[in-house]
């Protein structure tokens, strides 16, 4: 799936807390995708891509504080 740069992005209004929660939920979703016991019928290539995306995610205990700090800096 490619991103079409000519297409205007959907503008959504969300709070910093909603944005942080969304990124945390995405991480949790990717973790479920790579676990064949939780999601047994996922193609191997999808698992590989999910694993590659998770490679640079911070650990769970650091993710939320890091995102909140970044969003606070942007809003200051």
Q: What are its keywords?
A:
3 helices; 76 residues; mainly alpha
Please provide a written account of the structure.
This protein is mostly helical. It has a domain at 16-67. Helix content is 61%, strand content 0%. The chain has three helices and no strands. Helix 1 (16-34) packs across helix 2. The N and C termini lie far apart (35 Å). 0% of the residues are buried. The model has no long low-confidence stretch (mean pLDDT 85).
Write a brief structural summary.
With 76 residues, the protein is an all-alpha fold. The protein is built from three helices and no strands.
Describe the SSE topology.
Layout: H1 16-34, H2 44-54, H3 60-75
Helix pairs in contact: 1-2, 1-3
Biggest sheet record: none
N→C terminal distance:
35 Å
General form: globular
Name the beta content range: under 5%
